[in-house]
Amino acid sequence: MSELNKEVVDLVWGKPSGGGVSTSIFRRWSQGFVFSEHEQTALKQFEGGPCAVIAPVQAFLLKNILFNRESSNWRQMSEEEQKTALCSTLSEILESACASASTGFCLVTWAKGQSPHTSTLSKTQTQPQTQAVPKPESSQTPQDPQPTALAAEDLGFEQFHSVLHKRAVLSVSDLREEVLSLYQSWRGCCGVLLFLYSVILTKGIENIRNEIQDPTEPLIDPIHGHGSQSLVNLLVTGHAVSNVWDGDRECSGMKLHGIHKQASVGFLTLMESLRYCKVGAFLKSPKFPIWILGSETHLSVFFTKEMLLVAPECPSEQARRVFQSFDPEDNGFIPESLLEDVMKALDLVSEPEYVSLVKSKLDPESLGIILLGPFLLEFFPDQDSGIPDSFPVYHYNGLKQSNHKERVEYVEGTALVLGFEDPMVRTDDTPVKRCLQTKWPYIELLWTTNRSPSLN
């Protein structure tokens, strides 16, 4: 496989029984980072699968556009601004994945003279043989094929891996320059895979294997083409751990790795509403009010500009998080024997006599358990979280077919966060809402469109 280490292919795709990845799976993953012609700050996804890379990139892209860019209209960008914003975002993710400053970075590009054309493009446009990508989208006529979105029809899995080149970059400043210079590669054929391989080699294959819970599990399912949670976590946090809880946990003598610090963008999943998992505070409460939303098969992004949603924890929120860390099965209670440990972790008075008094008050029937609700009321009564009652929200789904008239655009709405369930303002029960309720149990959503946005 030429210069590209076969270990990378095994890590990403596993070792399919048929000896290779199916043509359809590889084709779905062979698109580049292409902006929507209907929403200048949104990336398009053409088929299922690459959302595991595109959605995290979109989340970081929005973070940089909303909070790091001086512009009166965050939804408008020129082609040059799109280039700068995308490349800055890709560089940021690569920097996060870098295991050590001394090891530097690795960019995976086309070998010299090997950048492919789309075969459909060559039939409709005349361009020099050295040109790797077509004109930008905005300059194409409506009848032109999608620019660099899908791989060349004659570029197969084996051929793709035979024409790749690894480029070492030692400093952050050089990385940013190199990533910017490779913009046409990122937006061109297989740009998503080129970036993914760059992240993997920058992180280090061995480092990734040490973080993944099951080293034999590939980052991309070779049967269905879906990205794994380890892949999403790698792009969001720089660590390819397989779990979404806070910290590490012991299970039957095995250490299961989780998230170890607050992420810049968050992650919520419909699987938590179905009680398949529990997302920890480091992903649930990120630094910026942007959350990747996971369904059973797809990733989308929910975001707002309201920074109060990610303000530092108030004491009651911290107490809830600490209490729940002693309740890993999310039962809503802990054994009374752990009460002293919880109180110590929260720097509450924890003298044995006082702890005993609290036990008798919170467990008057001597059931041997302490419920979360009474515990919070005892020590943190009437605390306001500081979250506004309502705020504008947006939802992004990169799949064309999941958008109205197949136009990839943000869906606007208003969120109402109540402290209790109010039947007078109850809205539709949708997957997006159920996903968000894992963070805000009594959230209600009022969308400006006739139909709610799709999580799939």
Question: Termini, distance in Å?
Answer: 35 Å
Overall SS class: alpha+beta
**Strand portion, in percent?**
5-15%
Low-confidence stretches: 118-152
Q: Radius of gyration from the CA trace?
A: 24 Å
- Spatial order of the strands in the main sheet? 7-8-9-12-13-14
Q: What value does the average pLDDT take?
A: 86
Helix proportion range: 25-40%
Number of strands: 14
Number of helices: 18
Largest sheet: 6 strands, mixed
Name the shape in a single word: globular
Model description:
With 456 residues, the protein is α+β, with helices and mostly antiparallel strands. 34% of the residues lie in helices and 13% in strands. Helix 3 packs parallel to helix 11 (229-237) and helix 4 packs parallel to helix 9. The radius of gyration is 24 Å and the shape is globular.
Note the topology.
Blueprint: H1 6-13, H2 23-28, E1 34-35, E2 43-44, H3 51-67, H4 79-97, E3 105-110, H5 119-124, H6 157-162, E4 164-169, H7 172-181, H8 183-187, H9 191-203, H10 205-211, H11 229-237, E5 249-251, E6 254-256, E7 266-269, H12 270-273, H13 281-284, E8 290-294, E9 299-303, H14 315-325, E10 333-335, H15 339-345, H16 352-362, E11 369-371, H17 372-379, E12 390-396, E13 411-417, H18 431-436, E14 443-447
Parallel strand pairs: 7-8
Antiparallel strand pairs: 1-2, 3-4, 5-6, 8-9, 9-12, 10-11, 12-13, 13-14
Helix pairs in contact: 3-4, 3-11, 4-7, 4-9, 4-11
